[in-house]
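In the current project phase, the collection of sequences with tokenised folds has grown. A sample record is quoted in full directly below:
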Amino acid sequence: MRVAAKGPGGKRAGARQVSIGYKNNGRPPHKPTPAMRETVVTCLGGGMRIEDIAASLRITEVTLRKHYPDELKSGKAMKHLQVMKHLFRQIENGVPSSTIFYLKTQCGWKETQRIEHAGITLAQLIEHSMDDQKEAA
């Protein structure tokens, strides 16, 4: 069995030590970008789960919670506000579908259908149907 000679500091003689600046030579530290922050807010506004958001950014949930606390806290509300502002701009510009949507969802409006009949009762309808059958026989 051959044993490698150790140099100063207990290192193997001739071995190079490579330092790339990462702790424990693992993944590089996560650096959030404005685009990533917007992605987190958009995903929250769309109803995505935290674990799915983390997976889409290719980070862990722990990293997501560590680097995006403000977005996680108010991201969904921020997107809702943005959508509401857009809806109100459309209402102010006279877009009928936006106005109707708002009235139905916020003001209790609903579309109803009335079925009108000729004033004949069910009993009269059955009697009339039976008379028709007798005549046909």
About this structure: The longest helix spans residues 69-92. The radius of gyration is 35 Å. The chain has a mean pLDDT of 84. The CA atoms of residues 41 and 78 lie 8 Å apart.
